[in-house]
Amino acid sequence: MARQSRWRWRFALVAAVLVVGLAALAYMLAEDAGMDRLAGQLRDRLTLSQRAVESEIERFAYLPQVLGEDERILELLAHPSTNRVREVNLYLQTVAGHAQADVVYIIDPSGLTLSSSNWSEPSSFVGHNYSFRPYFADALVTGRGAYYAVGVTTGVPGYFLSSRIDGPEGPLGVAVVKVDMSPLERVWAEAGEMTGVADASGIVFLSGVPGWRYRPLHQLADMDRARILAERRYDGIDVAARRPLVPGSAAADLTRIFEDGAQGLALSTIVIDPEGWHHFSALPLAPVREEARLIAGIAGLLSLVCLLAGLYGFQRRQLTRFRLNQKAMLEERVAERTSALGREIEERKRAEAELRKTQDSLIHAAKLAALGRMSAAIVHEVSQPLSALDNTLAAAALHAQRGDEPKSTASITTGRDLLKRMQRTIKHLKTFSSRAQALPSDPIALAQSVTEAIEIAAPRARERGVTLRFEPCELSPLTAANAVRIEQVFINLLLNAIDATASMGNSQVLVRLQWDETRAAVHFLDSGPGIPSEIAEQIIEPFFTTKATGEGLGLGLSISRAILEDYGGSLVFSPAAGGGTCATVWLPAAIASRSLELAR
């Protein structure tokens, strides 16, 4: 057995190493292939978006040079005047509208703007000096200039194209066209393209991702920081303080970044000449990694399936033999367990029968104990009618001897009434003392059951000097139960209430009947000392009693609760309003009948 266990562990270890190794190899190969495919997609995207950027610039590349050929502009630069400024302003406004340029303006050799297409707007360029801008200096030196920056006057970014305007004696000024490139950003954003353009220093000024704009593509050099500040390229924006988009100090053809520390991206960059811009595009790495994980999982699963298939073929014969042995053992165990279950069922049936027998005996013992508590009162209750009956019969005999027939008849009638009273009392006692477990459950009127219980407990109450008062409701609720067993519950509660009330020297126990169409409540309110809180949870436990030895078995409340639970009822104790205890019997209520006229 130990040898077989060692062999299994070795096989499992070899299989795990093989499966994990193949899965890891498949992951690396799939990831490399996915990265190559991703790089191709990035190159294709860069080619398309680069052409879009170049086309946007080429749309306006001719315009500054064309403006320099216009006689009105040449006259303005050669001989500035208010009338010429107004005339050129209107002309430039018309040109900007037809060409769809953001702003078109003319600067003199000192850098002062003489005329602009936005002359009528609050953010007019007229009168502003832009000699600090590189596009102005480059145009004066080389004839042409290009520069992307945030406007110091309007705060609106744009691409500035400039051309030098020459006269017979040298440069007359510079014509500038400001191009709004934000439509490119909107197109990229709507298409979900993670594409952008950074200037020669590496500051991203166009991007389809808003969070990338005005962030360094890489870590800025000190020289670049100083030049950006001097040129006021991004006036009002502290680009140097922003976190670089790509870690490191130089761009690579294909690198990986972790945007905000969460999303993995593959980034590819090319340079747009002659501006020296860095045009880049990014794609998420998640699909590549997901595909690599899927391929690795499939490879691992296939290798595992192959290993398991081989193991299955090897162990199939042994497993068949083992199953045959197990089947025989199982049949033997099933037979043994069936026999044991049969014995267990018979034993349980005997135990249940003994339990029912013991419960019935306890209930009967509780009845006899209650009768024992009332024995003296019952003897007194019967002896009084017997004495009265003897006197009544003697009087009847005397009246008969005298021939006084009316008086004799009256005496005999009185004697019969006394005899009926004794018969009724004895009938209640016989019914109460009988074993009631075999009696059927029928709809019974709770008011009648309470009355019967009061009649049985009345002798005990008179003996202890306690008055029993019953307050029925107008409609007596019915409940499905055995009348004798319910009366036993009521008698137990009445006797406890009588004893508690008498112990305090009080004289009244109140029984109140209520119902709410779904359940009925019988309240037994005594004026005794109440139930101490330390024994409140113990009073219903079997054989728990606060009475002296010989006065009770401690079974009355426990049996009462068990009887009520058989009929879906419950027994609840609570403090009474004026002191003492309120014992409430809850029972399911059926239909209601007109309440019987009961003696109070």
Automatic annotation (TrEMBL):
Membrane topology: Multi-pass membrane protein
Known EC number: 2.7.13.3
First-level EC class: transferase
Stretches that traverse the bilayer: 294-314
Catalysed reaction equations from the record: ATP + protein L-histidine = ADP + protein N-phospho-L-histidine
Signal peptide: none
The UniProt record lists the keyword Glycoprotein: no
GO CC annotations on file: plasma membrane
Localization (cell): Cell membrane
Main location: membrane
Keyword terms: ATP-binding, Cell membrane, Kinase, Membrane, Nucleotide-binding, Phosphoprotein, Transferase, Transmembrane, Transmembrane helix, Two-component regulatory system
Pfam families hit by this protein: HATPase_c
Any GO MF annotation of the entry: ATP binding
Domain Histidine kinase as annotated: residue spans: 377-591
Protein name: histidine kinase
Organism: Devosia crocina
